[in-house]
Amino acid sequence: MPTPPCVRLAATDHEPARDLPAIGQGTWYLGEGLAPRRDEVRALQHGLAHGLTLIDTAEMYGNGGAEEVVGEALAGRRDAAFLVSKVYPWNAGRDSAIAACEASLRRLRTDHLDLYLLHWPGSVPLAETLEAFERLQEAGKIRRFGVSNFDVDEMASLTALPGGEACAMNQVLYHLGSRGIEHSLLPWQRERGIPTMAYCPLAQAGSLRSDLLGHPEVEGIAEALGITPTQLLLAWAIRPIDGARDVIAIPKATRLAHVEQNAAVLMVELDAESLARLEAAFPSPRRKTPLDIV
């Protein structure tokens, strides 16, 4: 059986290198009563059992409700997951970030996060946030830190600060209909070995999101490959570039069948013809475009 595709996190002063599955589990809108809680918990556990071991959440999601769902799902299973959460920009101060992280840990029923992200750029100086992240690392409450919704100029500002070069991840909106990050941001991060986590990989938001799953070319290619349009979009998001993978997609699913379909994408390899057809229908941008943010 082939090895599922992975994305490697580089070793740090604190942690060894870590391989993560190229598809994880998102939790946006969990814990808000949109689906029975037991179904949300079961879906996350089902994903773990099918190799989707990265779980991404945030204090913002459901005002902590999503973290509580994740905490319930990981009861007795914490070691099976690579756990990611995010801090509000206004909670990212020298002391407030520590308090926010500790509150997230309580909701998640764990003593540490594998990765802690600044949810988007804010008014708190990045140097303060980095200081808080360093203190959290020294206390063993987070293993790595990163950011979300940072464009290339913001990434450059971050990594120019003392300690900023240890940024392990940038989580941004990315899907077939929203490829703006390919012009400047992705190449910049690839030069520095910083992987990308793609939220909304199934075109739930961002430019050209309308009817992307129902686009004739998407439907036709998916049918020819024997997969669903949703699976095609996921496989495209995590496709290797120049033989290397550095994008992790984090779709959300609350139905077990959808979890299994997402996990099955780890075994999908898109052929050159399919990729060329998608490129022709949804070309990569030729100029810098504003970062798509939800």
Structural commentary:
- The protein has 294 residues and is α/β, with parallel strands linked by helices.
- The protein has helices at 37-49, 65-73, 96-108, 126-138, 152-160, 185-191, 216-225, 229-237, 256-264, 272-281, and strands at residues 6-9, 18-21, 25-26, 54-56, 82-87, 113-118, 142-148, 170-173, 196-199, 247-249.
- The strands form 2 sheets. It has an 8-stranded parallel β-sheet, covered by helices on one side. The chain has a two-stranded antiparallel sheet with strand order 1-2.
- Helix 7 (216-225) crosses helix 8.
- It is globular and about 55 Å long.
- It starts with 5 loop residues before the first strand and ends in a 13-residue tail after the last helix.
Provide key terms for this protein:
single chain, 10 strands, 294 residues, 35% helix, eight-stranded parallel sheet
What is the secondary structure topology, with strand pairs?
Blueprint: E1 6-9, E2 18-21, E3 25-26, H1 37-49, E4 54-56, H2 65-73, E5 82-87, H3 96-108, E6 113-118, H4 126-138, E7 142-148, H5 152-160, E8 170-173, H6 185-191, E9 196-199, H7 216-225, H8 229-237, E10 247-249, H9 256-264, H10 272-281
Parallel strand pairs: 3-4, 4-5, 5-6, 6-7, 7-8, 8-9, 9-10
Antiparallel strand pairs: 1-2
Helix pairs in contact: 1-2, 1-9, 3-4, 7-8
